[in-house]
Amino acid sequence: LPAQVRHGESLTKLDFVKVKNSLTGEIRVEKGPQMLFLGAYDEVLGRGKAVTLSEDSRDYLLVENTLTGEKSIKKGPLFYIPSADENVLEKRVAITLKVDEYVIVKDEATGRVWNEKGPKLVFLQPTHTLVTSCKKALALKSNQYVHIVNQISGQVRLEKGEKLIFPGENEVIVNDQAMTATSLQVYQYVKIINATTGEVRVQKGEALVFLSPTESFISSVQSAVEINEQTAALVRNVRTAQQYLVTENCLFFPTADEEIVEIRKLQKLADYEVMVLKNNFGAFSFFHGSSKEISGRTFFVPPHHEIYTLKWSRGRRREHKDLDILKIDCRPQFMSFEFNCRTSDNVELVLEGTFFWQVIDVPIMIKNTGDTTGDICSHARSRFIQLISKVTLQEFMSSFNQLALQAHANDDQFYQQRGVKIHSLEVTGYRCADESTAKILEKIVQETTNRLNRLSIQESENEVKIHKLKGDIEQAKMNGELFEIKHQHEREQAKVEGVAEAEKIVAFLERLGTQTTSLETKIDLWKLLRKNEAISAVSQGSAHVYFTPNECNLSIENHEHTNTDNFDDKKKKSEKTKVIPTA
Prior knowledge:
Layout: E1 9-11, E2 15-21, E3 27-31, E4 34-36, E5 42-49, E6 51-53, E7 59-65, E8 71-75, E9 78-80, E10 86-93, E11 95-97, E12 101-107, E13 113-117, E14 120-122, E15 128-130, E16 135-136, E17 138-140, E18 144-150, E19 156-160, E20 163-165, E21 171-173, E22 179-180, E23 182-184, E24 188-194, E25 200-204, E26 207-209, E27 215-217, E28 222-223, E29 225-227, E30 231-237, E31 243-246, E32 250-252, E33 258-265, E34 267-268, E35 273-279, E36 284-288, H1 294-297, E37 298-299, E38 305-307, E39 310-314, E40 320-325, E41 327-329, E42 333-342, E43 348-359, H2 362-368, H3 372-388, H4 393-409, H5 412-416, E44 420-432, H6 435-511, H7 519-539, E45 560-564, E46 571-575
Antiparallel strand pairs: 1-4, 2-3, 2-5, 6-9, 7-8, 7-10, 11-14, 12-13, 12-15, 12-16, 17-20, 18-19, 18-21, 18-22, 23-26, 24-25, 24-27, 24-28, 29-32, 30-31, 30-33, 34-37, 35-36, 35-38, 35-41, 39-40, 42-43, 43-44, 45-46
Helix pairs in contact: 3-4
């Protein structure tokens, strides 16, 4: 063979060359750093770079041994150069799991399955595969829980919070979500049944209820019954089917074998009320508010008893039978009615009226009728139809109150058989059912009303006149009495003045008795003094007094006065007369 010239190859630290000796078939790896000089029989199979993997690197290598076919992984920290029998298949990236993440891994060689939880880096071996991608763990709060099913064994387990739930390799979370525990307050409870054993338990508050995998709620959350003086509970035992009434004051929670049938309130009856109870055999019991015993006035409805409800008709025509009566009122009361009837002259009337009635015997009423008000009104309607059919419209208008009295006067037995008493029955109004007849009747009624109004007006005017005459008479009598009183006062006053005047005269004459002997002279002197007093009294006013010469001696003086007005220079004259009486 001709000689060949080969050049040496410089290898760095990261370089490597895979060389095969063609003579022996040996394969070797030449690593750097070096100057590689190939031998006579060496040939280069391949060149490559070494792989550097740090300790925290996510990368790793999948390596296969070409001699054995075994596969392995290489991860850092590592400075890797494959040997002569190794071949790097691929470079992979590890799976990063956070603290709340996980993956499920399966070994294809052994069939083993397991889960890898974070935080960590997952380097899959050559035979490992991912069953699921990266999933979040289920974070449970303190009031949450989950049921986890093992798909191989079928067992179900309960996991409560607070924690992170990482399902196992063969486990799944029921409904893939967390359930919230039921919170019970101090007055609440709930019944729970175990589906495996059928056992029922009662969980009371205060508590958080976490159901086991085989448990479920029979009902929703219930409140305990507060038993006091006004409230009792009717309870049934589901095992014995017995009923009993719980009346002892407490906060009542039923047991697993008990159920609350009904909450019963204390029944309180007034003096005039009656209540009827019916037992499971159909027998009636009567409780009267007028009973002297407390147990008869206030009571709880016993077990196997119910309040007997009466269905009475309502409405003015009693066309609706839906009035529920629980407590019967035994006081007298009014009830209105309305129905049609015809007179003998074929006028159809609509009557309106009222009953004043009263329940007097409740047991008889319960025994003989189920609709007391309906029976009363139906019977009264029948009686009215019979009576009104025998009279004309005019006769009815003049005597409808007497007809109403006859309608119930002779029917005491009918009402007694129904335990009631009719105190009175009155017709409060009527009208014609036919429109044309109603207009005629309206005119008749209007004319009658006008006549009564005119009579009333005339009577009012007569009463006013009579009262006026009586007033005038009384006034005349009082005026006469007033005049008589005035005359009496004047007489008394004159009598008093006369006595006083006489006493003056007597006193005057007695004082002159020693000086003047003649009675006539004394009298003349008295008269003269009286005249002077009269003239003095008159002169103080604006009156003019005229005397005759025979009555007095007068002297007359005339004086002329001139007054000059500085403003208008006019002169006025005045004449003044002075009267001077002389003795």
